[in-house]
Amino acid sequence: MSVRRVRRGEAAARPAARRVIPGATCAELAATYDAVLIGGGLQGVALAYELAKRGYGRLAVLDAAYPGSGASGRNGEMIRSAFASEEWIGLFDDSLRRWQILSAELDFNVLFTRAGYLLLASTPEALAAAQGNVALQRRHNLHVELLGHDDVRRLCPEMAPAMIAGAVLQTDAGFAHHDATLWAYAQAAARLGVEIHPYTTVTAIGATGGAVRSVTTDRGKISTSVVVDAAGGQARAVAGLAGVDVPVEVFRLEAMVTEPLAPFLRPAVSSPAIMGYCHQTTRGEFVGGTEPDVPVPCESIRSSLDGARDMATKFVRLFPRLAGVRMMRHWSGIVTQTADVAPILGRAPGIDGLYLDCGWVYGFVGAPAAAALMAELIATGRTPPVLAPFGIERFATGELIRETSLVVAAAGESVA
């Protein structure tokens, strides 16, 4: 989150922020930074860490609220790379490899649990598509298995038999903890000298001669030649400060967690048939979210009764044993979604030094790889081949990415 009026009392809250937000500082802003990253979510802090690893210079991460206050602290936490397109597999398998060593690298336990990830097929047609996806995934050396009905029943005995035609199981995927991951990156970045400034609102991006020159905030003006828009739900507004239009719409996603239950679900599960995704934590809570078949733009993070009802109805349909289980907490977050649901990663058009790291729906999953690849682009000026398909220019050329295994509908589409 990045473009927002400062509420009365937030300035006073800055000193307290350092005590409760790992890596955050209450120091004054410097007059000059080598790069300014707008947005203190996972994309911003992870990219700052990767740039600092490369010795890029003095770096600042600015957030209008506190780091992780947006989608980074509100997501479903599930991690996989078993997708249906070359582009998504390339980016997200790079990320999965990084997830598996992330705790050791950052010296902080991100609670990555290699429990497996089950992408459920509930119809013969979905199973046939899954079979084709597995062939592609195996060509990329992914650890996947195609399961039949009985195989899924043995792995997930509490799943409703009528929902099972088969599934793809990625055995080395799983889930991690969103807060722990954000804190891990933030602390690691701060150790390398990155300054993370909460409650700092960006009001202008200065560009002259076709290049970035400055960032203006409610705490003063900063000279810089590099700005990264990693502002999550506010990414379009941030890009607009530099006169760049980012083609995204904002949608609300809702999730919930139940009271602790005896273990009944080992892998993470995605079910396109109910537009839902879920897993069971090591403490026993069932965590998940469902999405409407036709997404409706919404910028509110206020949870809805319709959302709670949708989740309860669909998850009981998938796991009948959840009937009567108490919902302990229910929350919402917002994402910026592109026409093809893929993120926008790369240079902004027409302005040297402005970079886009936004449009994420699967941002938690892809953050480790995106951060490393974007850092390579910024530091060397060369676009890594894996990153190239995700540039903003694809919306002008019509070369959109077709990815058919997502548990989300593209704007204007419905998913059966």
Helix-strand blueprint:
Elements: H1 10-20, E1 35-38, H2 42-53, E2 59-62, E3 78-79, H3 86-99, H4 102-106, E4 117-121, H5 124-139, E5 144-148, H6 149-155, E6 166-170, E7 174-175, H7 178-191, E8 195-197, E9 202-208, E10 211-217, E11 220-223, E12 227-229, H8 235-240, E13 249-258, E14 268-271, E15 276-280, E16 286-290, H9 305-318, E17 327-337, E18 344-347, E19 354-358, H10 363-380, H11 394-397
Describe the structure.
- This protein has 416 residues and is α/β, with parallel strands linked by helices.
- It folds into two domains: 191 residues, FAD/NAD(P)-binding domain (3-Layer(bba) Sandwich); 146 residues, D-Amino Acid Oxidase, Chain A, domain 2 (2-Layer Sandwich).
- 29% of the residues lie in helices and 23% in strands.
- The protein is built from eleven helices and 19 strands.
- The strands form four sheets. Strands 5-6-4-14-15-16-13-17 form an eight-stranded mixed beta sheet, with helices on both faces. Strands 8-2-1-12-19-18 form a six-stranded mixed beta sheet.
- α2 runs parallel beside α7 and α3 crosses α10.
- It is globular.
- The N terminus and C terminus are likely disordered.
